[in-house]
UniProtKB/TrEMBL annotation:
Organism in which the protein naturally occurs: Halopseudomonas aestusnigri
Signal peptide: 1-22
Annotated PANTHER family: ACTIVATOR OF C KINASE PROTEIN 1-RELATED, CHITIN SYNTHASE REGULATORY FACTOR 2-RELATED
Keywords tagged on the record: Signal
Protein name in the entry: TPR repeat
Transmembrane segments: none
């Protein structure tokens, strides 16, 4: 069974906007050295634009030796004259501790000055500080206000974060339609996370009509930018024929791209395709390779399938100890087939000395999840007193449960055990079997 599509990631806010790179108009006016000399003279005469341009060169180390302290000094001079871009840069340097001691309060002061003049990057960073509680208490309403101002100026990260707040109900009621609106704005500007989340809304029909074609469109846009979750979900759609004809080769291609970025569900699904020969020839070695990557990240089904390949010697030499290792990893995560197979290995001494206690432990775990064969084998252990006190009532109940699932031989075993019980014991065991439901702990009789 392949891993299915992911839910929304709920990604954290985008990174702070950084000072803009220096413009290159000076190339039209002459040599950079000459331009820097001119800016120095203008800056000494209090020209705010020259102070800011020169500060940017010191910040970038372009035409002069990089000097954050000098950049901060010049930005501050321009900021004091009301230059919004310089105010933003001063705020950013306080925010990052570049050329000056880190100071969130000062960062907020200067971001606010720039933001109130309409600087979109400052509006975004100020929103982010309110959103994350940096220098101020968390204030979702203030965050929304500044994200909105930046978003209205086309700031893609602000559009995305605003969409997230509507998507997750932070500071506003959940509004999938509004989330879709702002995701679309950011997505159209190439914002990969917005493209992914917009695709997900179309995929699930949340805030927009369910539309597999639109989902594919936006998954593809994000996937082509390297978004592993989008690559994985796009692969699922080709794999299962959602909005497109089934195309195993394309599915494999996108699974591989996501898998190579460490996406464990993609690694597992890619392994399955090699294991089962879907869209490619069966290749046990490749299956083991990708199962291993996913298993090492804790993917329970990958751990189980990898154990099975070691257990049966598929694509590798039979290795019972490796099988036990991976069965155990999967069993501890509740994978019932792994629990059953692990119990068998302890029961029969495969790759380990026989251990009735461990066999009982894992048969019990699998049986409580409805594994009929585990119920049957556990019943035998209760019947024969293997590793546990003989308990015919428990044996009867377990045979009855496995018989209820149609396991061959269980009905006959149940009837044999009935002859070993008193009328009251039989009534109690039958009631326990009738009242038990899958997922509950097995009754003690």
């Amino acid at each position: 069974m392949k891993a299915t599509s992911l839910l929304a990631l709920g990604l954290t806010g985008a990174l702070l906007s950084a000072p803009l790179q220096a413009v290159t108009e000076y190339d039209k006016k002459g040599d950079l050295r000459t331009q820097i000399t001119q800016w120095i003279n203008q800056a000494l005469n209090g020209d705010a634009q020259a102070q800011r341009e020169l500060a940017q060169r010191y910040y970038d180390g372009e035409g002069v030796e990089q000097d954050y302290a000098k950049a901060f000094e010049l930005y501050s001079e321009a900021a004091a004259q009301g230059d919004a871009e310089a105010q933003f840069s001063v705020a950013y340097m306080y925010d990052m501790g570049e050329g000056v001691e880190l100071d969130d309060l000062k960062a907020i002061e200067y971001y606010t000055l720039a933001a109130e003049q309409g600087n979109a990057a400052a509006q975004f960073n100020l929103a982010l500080m309110h959103d994350e509680g940096e220098g101020v208490p968390v204030d979702d309403l203030a965050a929304i206000e500044w994200y909105l101002r930046a978003a209205e100026q086309g700031h893609a990260d602000a559009q995305y974060n605003l969409a997230l707040m509507y998507d997750e109900g932070e500071g506003v009621p959940v509004n999938d339609s509004k989330a879709a609106e702002y995701y679309l704005m950011a997505a159209q500007q190439g914002h990969a996370d917005a493209q992914y989340n917009l695709a997900l809304l179309y995929d699930l029909g949340e805030g927009v009509p369910l539309d597999d074609r639109e989902a594919i469109r936006w998954y593809t846009a994000a996937a082509e930018q390297g978004d592993a979750a989008a690559q994985y979900n796009l692969a699922i759609m080709y794999d299962e024929g959602e909005g497109v004809p089934v195309d195993d080769r394309r599915a494999i291609g996108w699974y591989r791209k996501a898998a190579e970025q460490g996406h464990k569900d993609a690694q597992y699904n890619l392994a399955l395709m090699y294991d089962e020969g879907e869209g490619t020839k069966v290749d046990d070695a490749e299956a083991i390779n990708w199962y291993t990557f996913a298993a090492e990240q804790g993917h329970a089904k990958a751990q189980y399938n990898l154990a099975l390949m070691y257990d049966e010697g598929e694509g590798t030499a039979e290795d019972n100890q490796a099988a036990i290792k991976w069965y155990t990893a999967a069993a501890e995560q509740g994978e019932r087939n792994a629990q059953y197979n692990l119990a068998i290995m302890y029961d029969e001494g495969e790759g380990t000395p026989e251990d009735n206690a461990q066999a009982i432990r894992w048969y019990t775990a699998a049986a409580s999840q409805g594994e009929a064969s585990a119920m049957f084998n556990l019943a035998i252990m209760y019947m024969n007193g293997e590793g546990i006190r003989t308990n015919n009532a428990m044996a009867y109940m377990l045979f009855a449960l496995s018989a209820g699932q149609g396991l061959e031989g269980a009905r006959e075993a149940r009837d044999v055990m009935a002859d070993e019980l008193s009328a009251s014991q039989l009534k109690t065991a039958r009631r326990a079997a009738a009242e038990w439901t899958v997922g509950e702990a097995l009754p003690s009789l």
